[in-house]
Write a structure and sequence with these properties.
The chain is mainly beta. The protein is 2% helix and 50% strand. The two termini are 61 Å apart. A hairpin with a 7-residue loop joins strand 71 and strand 72. The chain is flat and about 135 Å long. The longest helix is centred in the N-terminal third of the chain and has 9 residues. The chain has an eight-stranded antiparallel β-sheet.
Length: 1089
């Protein structure tokens, strides 16, 4: 057993009691006094007490430098010797001090040292030989173990070497023994500390002296024992606390040195051939000065802060253990999982567990044979593995060490692949192309992913998800690759993704329904397969969707394109197909009209389940609907009833009844859709007509919906008996066809909307009632040259003007309208007002002061050598234009390139506009350097359009930096200011309080295509209620991003591309509808992953 090294062992007295009466069994009483840590150091006990007041010394004696021996009783009763053996008045440690000129019997070297006395003061027990005062190895004979005071042993201590000798013979200077195992004549273990003069730290080493005359063995543990050793880098300084453990299990000696915050140092010695099997042992601890030369005043001193000596009980043989795998000297690779197996046995008991160790570190344990443990993902290094078995009496036995080596694995290159765009994708000139990539490293981490077009680097991303937006791409064919770099600098390159950028605009795909043909008729309940062709002249088809009116039926992602519409109800239907190409453009087919007729009436009660009021066992109620006129249902007494469950709601229009023996039973027939409320459809309570096989009692009536049909027999016209006997009850109707619900009205939202040319507006339709059988509607535009409308209600603005969109229901021709006003986005083309590359100076731009400058160094200029520089965050962190003559224009655009350098994460810069000659500025857009969308040391191209501003001849534009200090820089280059449109669209100058944001608008959707998350930025001219929704191409709202009041100004939000339910949306094209200040704007987005 082993005590905590931060405790003082008080078990000696109990061991003494145990030795006096072995009837106490193998139970040891341990009293532990905790030693508390302060700041990583041990706090010893009361400095006012003698050593025995803080340490249990009943099973020790002390030998002093003058050869005086203090036996157990006197030692444990408060003995102290000033300057030789005493309690440190500051720390409470037990101090051993020994001068060089001391002497000790039996040795040439002086000592102030404890000797273990297991007899604990019982002077009747001999101090030497195999007996109760000493202990033996568990490999000793059983008779020796039975006669001894203990079996095997562990000595632990926490010490600090305060002083070592500095004079005398060079081979003796600076060395002291602080713990040892002593045998009858030899020393199985001596633990040395040695610090040479001039060195700042000391070394630790051990000596093993075999008892059979073999040469003494030396083992350096920390530093070197050499008399000329250099200062050990990992040595132990004087006064530095450390712990040691000297442990013997069988023939294995293990010495461990422990220090706070550092790995243990372990030395294992195999004593199988050392001749100690039948020898007797005792521990020693203290200051055994190994220098008897030098100055008479020279000395060695050691302080003990904790001391513990433990042994297994005599009489119990220790178990044995051996590591069977891996073999000694085995090698492995870094990251391997290594299975360690062991054998264990106990000659006089059973094994309770086997523990597996690497050095002194426990890896795990196994409590049942076969004993094994798997050490997972092992790092490179050299390791010593042992197994320690514990038996049912608590005794332990350790195996010999098995040395293994784990070699470092070579660094594996990272892998990367471009996930978007797809190989073969096509785009239009001027498009901004988002390139996305995945990257992984099997044995490390990804530092960055770079994006290349051929050999030209486009940009890089330092964190997942990895992407880069290639802006304003010109026409041509391009080969894209991504290159991942791992934490060790290794790289991996993706396969090439080839794309084409077309010089013209994307051409919409075309599609047509090839089956069924227009005008085809079907029968209710049919499964109708719809087939379509689709093609794209400048790209590929991504999917074909199939619609019935505005209702999407399904889609197909690959040719041949088809969808099967199952169990179609009676009615008239308009079918269309909608094709989507690889860039999200759509094209719709012509309408194909089909009709589904009600099928011929059938006996829908045949073989359905029945419930009866009663029945004759030989003539059950199920016979009434089995289709066999030779069987019957019979029940005694009137009235009697049978209810038939049709399984689902049917439209029924007639019944037939066949009576047994052609009787004329009197009855009523009732129906219900829910099984609780019934209505009567046939009343023959006064019937006199018999029901025969050839002429059943037949009743026809207007079609009604029913699931449950109940016939109740109340009597008979001529039959005088008491039995009700019916042979067949038939109910005729149409499978799956219920009673139609007519349309009563329709409404469309929004009732009106204003959009810009080329923008879209999705209309939403509500048919009343909500359960109307035919929900189909059609759309039409009063002026297709102004606005067109698709079959799904998507309005596209064509030119300035007004158009009325009318929605009409197929059932009843009910209508509602939405008035669409289309405005020009300024009209005409952009006129360049100023274009500056700063190669010739400031141009129309002005120096803001100390935190702005004209940079001419070349590195941070997008082209040439010059650019504008703004830094820090002060009133002079600006560059500003002169007054711009813009009174005749409506819209303003600013295009520019920029590079941030040294900007802290989260800092930004702003674009601001003034219309009063620079007295007041309004921020119209900002760019946050976040390490993801924008990062330091990369160029970015931006374009900001300011639509509907109150521009005048005092309009100024400026950039302002919002950094932290002069090392936070933004470099601006190639700034182009353009304007267009008529001033008639701007606010009258009679309204000076009008804010610059005269038109609420969507300023940014990023990234698009969407990869996991999307950032939305919009601007409000006034305080307003904002609704932002995501719709599918059928106009159905599938996500709500914003719904509530918002203040005027710029707002941002983030969306994770999930639906209202929280589920991720599948890849495809969607619409984002913005209702800002009561006006609708619609933007298309593509979710790419």
């Amino acid at each position: 057993m082993k005590t905590n090294q931060t405790s003082i062992n008080l078990s000696c007295l109990s061991r003494h009691m145990h030795r006096q009466s072995k009837s106490l069994g193998k139970v040891a009483l341990l009293l532990l006094i905790q030693i508390v840590f302060f700041g990583g150091q041990l706090k010893a006990q009361d400095p006012n007490l003698p050593p025995s007041g803080n340490f249990e010394l009943i099973d020790w004696k002390v030998t002093l430098p003058d050869q005086t021996e203090i036996k157990e009783q006197q030692l444990s009763s408060g003995f102290e010797s000033p300057n030789e053996f005493y309690t440190d008045p500051s720390t409470g440690a037990m101090v051993f001090r020994c001068p060089n000129n001391g002497a000790t019997g039996g040795s040439t070297y002086p000592r102030s040292e404890l000797r273990e006395m297991l007899r604990a003061g019982n002077t009747s027990i001999s101090t030497s030989g195999i007996g109760l005062n000493n202990w033996v190895f568990s490999t000793s004979s059983q008779s020796n173990q039975d006669a001894s005071g203990g079996v095997d042993g562990t000595l632990t201590a926490t010490v600090a070497v305060d002083h070592v000798s500095t004079s005398g013979t060079s081979s003796m200077i600076g060395r002291v023994i602080i713990g040892q195992i002593h045998a009858g004549t030899d020393e199985p273990c001596r633990l040395y500390y040695r610090k040479l003069p001039g060195n700042t730290k000391g070394s630790i080493y051990i000596a093993h002296e075999p008892g059979n005359g073999n040469p003494e063995q030396w083992y350096d543990m920390i530093g070197s024992r050499s008399s000329s050793a250099s200062d050990p880098a990992d040595g132990i300084a004087l006064g530095e606390q450390f712990s040691y453990e000297i442990k013997v299990v069988g023939n294995t000696l293990t010495v461990t040195i422990s220090r706070p915050g550092k790995p243990d140092v372990v030395e294992i010695v195999d004593m199988s051939n050392s001749g100690f099997a039948n020898d007797w042992m005792y521990f020693k601890a203290g200051c055994y000065n190994q220098n008897n030369s030098g100055n008479s005043g020279d000395y060695a001193q050691v302080s003990f802060f904790a001391l513990s000596n433990t042994h297994s009980s005599a009489g119990n043989s220790a178990p044995t253990a051996s590591v069977t795998a891996p073999a000694n000297g085995a090698t492995f690779n870094e990251g391997d999982n290594i299975t360690i197996t062991a054998n264990a046995s106990d000659s006089d008991g059973s094994i309770t567990k086997v523990e597996f160790f690497q050095g002194s570190t426990k890896l795990g344990e196994d409590t049942s044979s076969p004993y094994s443990f798997t050490w997972n993902n092992v790092s490179a290094g050299s390791y010593n593995l042992t197994a320690t078995a514990t038996d049912n009496g608590g005794a332990t036995g350790s195996s010999s060490a098995v040395a293994i080596t784990v070699n470092s694995a070579p660094n594996a290159d990272p892998t990367t692949s471009i996930t978007a765009p797809a190989n073969g994708a096509s785009f239009n000139a001027g498009d901004n192309i988002t390139i996305s990539a995945s990257a992984s490293d099997s044995d490390g981490s990804i530092n960055k992913v770079e994006f290349f077009q051929g050999a030209t680097k486009l940009g890089e991303d330092l964190s997942a998800p990895y992407s880069f937006i290639w802006n304003n791409v010109g026409a041509g064919n391009y080969n894209l690759t991504s290159v991942a770099t791992d934490n060790l600098g290794a790289t991996g390159t993706s396969s090439i993704v080839s794309i084409s950028v077309n010089s013209g605009p994307n051409v919409n795909p075309t599609t047509s329904i090839t089956a069924p043909a227009n005008g085809t008729s079907f029968t209710a309940g049919d499964n109708i397969t719809i087939n379509a062709d689709a093609s794209d002249s400048d790209g590929t088809i991504a999917k074909v969707e199939f619609y019935q009116g505005a209702t999407k039926l399904g889609e197909d992602l690959s040719a041949p394109y088809s969808f099967t519409w199952n169990n179609v109800s009676a009615g008239s239907y308009d079918l269309t197909s909608v094709a989507t190409d690889n860039v999200g453009a759509t094209g719709a087919s012509s309408v194909v009209s089909i009709s589904v007729a009600t099928g011929p009436p059938t006996n829908v009660a045949l073989n359905k389940s029945v419930t009866v009021s009663s029945e004759q066992a030989s003539n059950p109620g199920s016979n009434l609907v089995d289709g066999d006129p030779d069987s019957r249902w019979s029940a005694s007494g009137f009235p009697q009833w049978v209810q038939v469950d049709l399984g689902s709601t049917h439209s029924i229009s007639s019944t037939e009844l066949v009576c047994f023996s052609d009787r004329a039973y009197q009855f009523i027939v009732e129906v219900s859709t829910n099984g609780s409320s019934y209505s009567t459809i046939v009343d023959r309570s006064s019937n006199t007509t018999p029901g025969t096989n050839s002429a059943p009692i037949t009743d026809n009536f207007a079609a009604v919906d029913a699931r449950y049909v109940k016939i109740t027999v109340s009597g008979a016209a001529s039959y005088t008996g008491s039995w009700v006997s019916l042979e067949e009850f038939r109910v005729f109707g149409t499978e799956g066809a219920g009673q139609s619900v007519p349309v009563t009205g329709v409404s469309v939202t929004p009732a009106s909307a204003t959009i810009l040319v080329n923008d879209t507006q999705q209309l939403s339709v509500s048919v009343s009632p909500s359960n109307a059988s035919n929900q189909d509607v059609t759309y039409s535009s009063s002026n297709a040259s102004v606005a067109t409308v698709s079959a799904s209600g998507l309005v596209t603005a064509v030119s300035a003007g007004s158009a009325t969109i009318t929605v009409t229901t197929d059932d009843g021709a009910f209508t509602d309208t939405s008035v669409i006003t289309v405005e020009s986005s300024g009209g005409g083309s952009w006129t360049v007002i100023s274009s500056e590359d700063f190669e010739s100076g400031w141009g129309i731009w002005n120096d803001g002061g100390s935190d702005a400058s004209l940079y001419t160094g070349g590195t941070y200029a997008h082209q040439g050598s010059a650019a504008l520089n703004i830094e820090n965050n002060s009133s002079s962190s600006v560059v500003t234009t002169n007054d711009l003559s813009l009174a005749s224009y409506a819209d303003l655009k600013v295009d520019f390139w920029f590079m941030p350098v040294g900007m802290n994460n989260g800092h930004d810069f702003w674009l601001q506009v003034s219309t009063d000659g620079g007295s007041n500025y309004t921020t119209v857009q900002s760019w946050v350097i976040d390490g993801s969308n924008y990062q330091n040391d990369s160029f970015y191209q931006e374009s900001v359009e300011l639509l509907g501003y109150g521009l005048n001849d005092q309009t100024r534009v400026r950039f302002r930096c919002d950094g932290n200090n002069d090392s936070d820089d933004v470099y601006l280059d190639e700034i182009v200011i353009s304007a267009k449109g008529s001033a008639s669209r701007t606010t009258s100058e009679a309204e000076p309080s009008q804010a610059l944001l005269l038109q609420s608008r969507v300023s940014k959707i990023y990234p698009n295509p969407v990869r996991g998350k999307m950032l939305v930025e919009y601007e409000l001219a006034d305080d307003s209620h904002v609704v932002i929704s995501v719709l599918n191409l059928s106009g159905q709202v599938i996500a709500q991003l914003e719904n509530g009041p918002r203040r005027a100004g710029v707002h941002t939000l983030e969306w994770d591309a999930s639906s209202i339910s929280g589920a991720p949306l599948p890849k495809g094209m969607y619409l984002v509808r913005f209702n800002l200040n009561g006006e609708n704007q619609v933007k298309r987005i593509l979710i790419s992953e």
